[in-house]
Structure formats: structure tokens, C-alpha cells
């Protein structure tokens, strides 16, 4: 019962051991009310039981992700994942790349990486970067969101089946002809390898995926069946079933992400202050950088998981391991024709009307498409609905698949002339969201098409250099604080300068106050007919010649101290705003030996 309560709190916010103890008491009372007094343990026994089960009390306060990782971690003895042939096991997963890039609308966006790695050679055979933007609106009707979709995973599989051509600006070492790949043999069996990047082409035989909805979609399963790929789902909440791709993601973030402009760190606590205000790469540029890094660094760097059975102390690179394995089993290319590539696109089953077909609130029509209007598809259970394929990265055209003739029928977006340039499904969703916020309708395709053109123009033009980008300081929400505040000086008359007199003079010169050597009070002179009063041993007051007592100043000599100290604050000693009613006249000889100068006396008389 205790283990069940610990497992139930894995996904919750952190808490103390006292919360777990109270939940255990509630569970025992709920399930065994008659035996509660006999079964319920004390608090001290509860903590001893946690220690015996190997559950640290501090682990209850770990971050949620850390507690989940600890619960899903592998248990000893560990069994490594291994494969003997190329493509025997390919692991696929998605993760945040910890980098901010510029989206299609010109705004900074988070990005997400979906990658596939071959276990036998540790080669990254496919990598796809997509923006990660949360949608707006209630659940089930959110609009404008973006993340990894099934089509992105399918495009990644298409990358694994075709050589990646080298691009202008890449380092010469990133090309296959400068790498450890058997370039001459590969070009002989597949001419597409000429000028390709130093990344091998491996056809997956089995892929291991998690339970994400993008890998459980009908589109992904349909493509895997067409390509002859077996799909094996990993066990629920068991990251060790695809530990190779998980460790690869950690290496990518360490060796690639942290060196890219716009790096954010793994969480907000590690993010820099002005990441989004600096120079950022666009999504296409970031994808190009990642492809070059894979060919130049990952594929040509020795991997700790790749060792020869004859020389286990030597590590080899993924490209060298691929060269070794391909020499043993050979390589058979699988080029896809344009006809087969269209079968990789996502599809919807729709009925053709006089207005064509509508996909994601966009209408497509053509003369060839009208031939299938109100026509039966001859597929049991589908009626007049035909299979319509489309590309989210190029939604200008759609294709109807005629299975009776194994042919494709093309149709164009009816308002394409209002956009007149390349655009994506994500740009359309952002434009739709803007129109709805302005009070428009979701079915106003003309207005949304113009907004798509405006977004593309804004992204191409860039930010206005004259516009101020300094954010305003947050001072809290506006509150109604218009209340009467009493004036503390109300009724107090203004001070009269004629009533202000100078403060009384000190009984010693100023140089003796700061003197550190001689601690003897300076001598005071007296007239023959006037004697000075004696100073007690521990006086609290000083009596001046006029008979007035000063309670603020006194002499003291601390034991063991060589310096003179005054009791009272400096503000009390040097205050010139001190006034005393009917100030008596001080003798001239006392004034001549005081700390105030003749100028100060003159100023006091002037006041």
C-alpha cells in the first residue's frame, strides 16, 4: 500500500514526507476501516520503512521530471541494446533542442528535434527540426499550435532512404568523398551518392518508437507498411527500451545546441537574460547547420559504443562502422519515384463537390478534379469519398489518388493568386488566428490568404530598426488608489529665522576631539574672581561657566583605551538647529577658548 501511494505521487508536485504519511493513513482507513488501529504504523516506523525500501525522504521533494526518470530508470543488471546488421533496429524519438530560432512569421520560436539512429552503426540517418508553438483557445478547438507531427516523422524516414546532397558553404570534410565511407563502391551502386554528405543511407528493417500520438497515427503506420518497415512500440514509461536515442539527444545538446546562437539551456533557470534579443537563425538555416554538424562531427568522431571485438580498446566512428558492416552484407538502394513520394504525404478522405474539396479551411479545385464530382470511389464503406493527399510544407496543391487507374489528379488552392509565393500550413494557422482576433470568420479564405501574404512580407522585411524594442517595466496591475492622505505637517507654522540661534560651543577645541595621542582634557582658564568647577570621575553632565548643564556630552576614558570618546551622537554635538529659550550671555574668555570660530559667532549673532 505504501509503494502504491509513492507511485501515485510520481507525477504530482513535490512534497514532504508528512504528506505521504497522511495519505497512507487515509488509504489504510479507507480500505481497512475495521483493522485500522492494528495495521497503521507510527510516524517513526513509517520513516524506517521508507529507508528499508530504499526510498530517500529527500526524493519526495525532487522535481517531477527527476522523480519520473528515477522511477523509469533501468535496474541492474543492465542489458545493452545491440544489433548485428544495418537497419536491424532503428530508434526514433523527439525532444526539445534548447534553441530559439526565427519562425516563418519572423518571430522567435522554440524548436523540436525528431531523429532516427541506427543501433548497429550509431549513425543518425534522419533528423528533422520543427517549430514548437503552443496553440490558443480551449482544448479541442485550439488553433495556431505547432509541434512534431506524423508528417515530420515520415519526412525523416524519407531522409534515411535517400542520400543527402552536400550544400554550398559546407566544409569539404563534410562530403562523402572526403570521409571514411566507401565512396567509390557506393557511387557505383547508387549514382545519387555523387556529391552527397558524409552520412550513410540505411534502410530501416525495424523501428522502435514510444507511445506518442505521432507514431501511433494512421498515416505513420500506412507509410511504414508501404516501405516494409516493422514497428515495435517500447514499453510504457520505459526509457531503457530506446536508450540509444535518449543518450544521443544528450550528446546533441552538449556538442551542438550550446554552441548555436539562441541557446536557451534545459530550463528557464538556466536561460540567459537576453537570448531572444540577439541574432537568431531561421528554421531552414538551423536545419542546415544540424545536417552539416551530423556529417562533419557526429559521423566522423569515435563513438564509445562502437568497439571492435578483436581490439576492444579501440573506438571507431559511425562512418567506419558502417563501412565495415556494408562490406559484409552489401547495400541495395531503394530510390522512391515521385509517384511513390506522394504516397508518403498525409491524406484525408473527402467528397468532391462543385466547389472542389476543402482541407483545413482551404478550397481546392480544378477541371480534372471536377470529373470525380459525385462519383463513387468503389471502396467498401467509403462511398463517394476519395483519398486526397497534401503537403503541410507546401499546401498550394493537393492530389486525388485514383486507385482504379493508379494515377494522381492535381488541384490548386483557389486563392493562391492572393499569396503568390511559398507558404506553409503553420503560416496559414497563424494568419487564421489573427483574422479571428480581429473579429473575422474562419471561413473567410480571401482575408486569411491576404493575411498570409502580409505575414510573409513582414518576415521578409524584418523588424523596424526605428522601433524601440526596450520593454516597459512591469509595475503591477492598475489599482484605484485615489484616496485622501493626511498631511503630517498640517497646522504646523513655518519656522521663523529670527528665533533660530546657534548651538552652544563645545568645551574644547576641535583639534582635541580628533587627537588620538593625548587623552587629557584641554585646560580651561578662569578669571581671578571665577573658578572652574571640578569634573567628577564618572560624570553624566558637564556644567559650563554660566551654570547650565549639558546632558548630551561627557568625558569618559575606557579602560585600556588611548583615545578620547564622547558620549552622545555626532548630530547632537554638531547640531546648529538647537535652540534654547533665553540663552544666557557667555563670557568673552570662554568664547575665545571654545570650538566655534569668530566667524561662527558672527554668523550666530547675524541670525
Question: What would you say this structure looks like, in words?
Answer:
This protein is an alpha+beta fold and 607 residues long. The protein is 29% helix and 14% strand. The protein has helices at 2-8, 17-31, 36-39, 43-52, 64-72, 150-160, 183-189, 218-227, 243-255, 283-298, 318-329, 338-341, 367-370, 425-437, 445-461, 510-513, 570-573, 588-592, 598-606; strands at 90-102, 108-118, 123-132, 206-209, 230-233, 303-307, 315-316, 347-351, 357-359, 362-365, 385-390, 397-402, 407-413, 542-543, 549-550, 555-556, 565-566. Strands 8-11-12-13-10-9 form a six-stranded antiparallel β-sheet. Strands 3-2-1-4-5 form a five-stranded mixed β-sheet, sandwiched between helices. A two-stranded antiparallel sheet has the order 6-7. β1 (90-102) and β2 form a beta hairpin. α14 (425-437) crosses α15 (445-461). It is extended, with a radius of gyration of 42 Å. Residues 534-571, 573-586 and 590-607 have low confidence and may be disordered.
* Structural class by secondary-structure content: alpha+beta
Structure annotation, total helices: 19
| Main beta-sheet annotation | 6 strands, antiparallel
Low-confidence stretches: 534-571, 573-586, 590-607
Q: What percent of residues adopt helix (DSSP H or I)?
A: 25-40%
Approximate strand percentage: 5-15%
Number of beta strands: 17
Tell me the span between the first and last alpha carbons: 88 Å
Computed over alpha carbons, the radius of gyration is 42 Å
Mean pLDDT: 79
Shape: extended
Strand order of the largest sheet: 8-11-12-13-10-9
